[in-house]
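hi support,

uploading two proteins for the ticket. first:
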Amino acid sequence: MQPITDLSLPQLAIEDPKFAEDPFARFTAARRQHPWLARSSFGYIITEYAAIKDLLGMDDKLRVAQEGVLELMNARGSKWGKFQLGSINGIAADRHKSLRDLLAPMFTPRAANQHRGLMRQVVSRLLDEWAPRGRFDFEEFVSYFPVTVICGMIGASPEVVPKLRSSLETLGLSFNLIPDFLPNLEQAIEVMEEFIAELVAARRAGHHLAEQPDLLDALIAANDSGGLTIVEMSNLLIFLFVAGYDTSKNVLTMIMYELIKRPEIYARCKEDPAYCRNVVEEGLRYQNPATIPRLANEALSYRGVLIPKDTMLFFPVSMATRDPSAIPSPDEFDPERPQGNRHMAFGRGIHMCLGQFIARAQIEEGLHVIARRLANPKLVGEIGHRPFPGVWGLRGLPIEFTPAPASESPLDFGG
């Protein structure tokens, strides 16, 4: 058994802004030096698909790494730190299970499909405003989509979107491991906590935007029955906004960037909703934004390597399915490829993302409607990148296109 500290491992400088521009090449080079493991300034990085799948499934041996991230961010005792430790991903395992059991019926595939009409309506209205310009930053445009959908799901007025969007963008960078960013996170979490407190108070006072009960009503009922505390309800609502915003916005932006280079795939998305599903799944495989941190609960052995207790491990699921040992021709974007080793964009194990079916439905609906309204998109400027640690993605995607008629109704995915 060889201690992990004694291994000769490649070093991945994930904190370097240039790393985010092409992490795939860095991971490929790292795998040549060691088949499944690398070092970083913050801990160890698992680089191989099979190792990520194995270790990320060891819920009994690994725990969520909020405490480790707070240490790296110098954030202990901060308002943002308290939110992280109190969120559904930061609480103790027994309470985490109780909350997931409570929330699971609200996030089934059937529940997600019930929101598809709202998703189509939101993206269509946004396109009514933006498409006539013929040119815009796609990342900026699409950022309004998920936050407006979430407002619709909980009965909040879309008028709050401009106020929330900046804070959500900031909180999406929560795990960037840059300590100097903490003041921005503190300000953003204050904005979100105040908004949620006002929203809940208004609902309790009888303010409804629609006649039918919504997700907020269900959470308030859970609080009234003792299933949720006030703090847990607030944290869940903030987490819903942050997780829903970042995943959908970043994945849609990444997919659009790839489809601009593949106009035949984009054109087919206009006509075929079922094909859009394939494109979204391939997009999540090809480059998704997530890197998942974990801490070892105990000393554990894997493939002859001893990993000490409390070691910080990073699982870049964004890189896992570009590993040629697991995926044939991994650098080809092929929506019709046979399904073998599936992507892990939404995690694995007991912390797998509860909102994954909503995210999938939202990205599918958004892609289909966008393809019907923005014809022949072309890149017309420079792109940037978010930091690799945490939630990676593009920063800016300036495009030019031919606006299509708004009268064309999007097809229905069904479900």
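and the second one:
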Amino acid sequence: MTKPAREKARGFAAQLGSLIGAMVEPALAARGLGEASLIADWPEIVGATIARYARPIQIQWPRRGAKRRPEESAAATLVLRVDGAFALEAQHAREIIVERVNAHLGWRCIERIAFRQGPLAEAKKKRRAAPAPSAEALAEAAALAAPIEDEELRLALTRLGARAIDRAGRPR
């Protein structure tokens, strides 16, 4: 019996990553994106700069039976949503993008890139750092954590405890 089957039999929860693929694949396949890693690993494939301003939205495969000239291949077109200000730069990086995507997929399936200018979904806003705990809360937390011998653990618990003490004492 394999390990996942054994875990399932005992009632262990499955890893989230093993379930998401089955949920996402039909939506990606409808857009011609049969390889979910193209979306998931986009920044690693093309680099952070390009990934910040361009995202894959579709792969357009040629129709079956479509008449093609002998010099034309059956390779696909990768459609990218590109931030308007980055469109010219993306056009210049077209060959690099094609090369990197094909290297990632392991075969020469992308031959062309089509650009669709438009806004990209905004990245999550950076969280503001929590305010520093007050001196009183730090002193109280340090006194409570004093019996702990491991210095790193004691300091980490002191910081955590001070924030908890401050938060409990602040009006909401």
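thanks. also noticed: The two ends are 53 Å apart (CA to CA).
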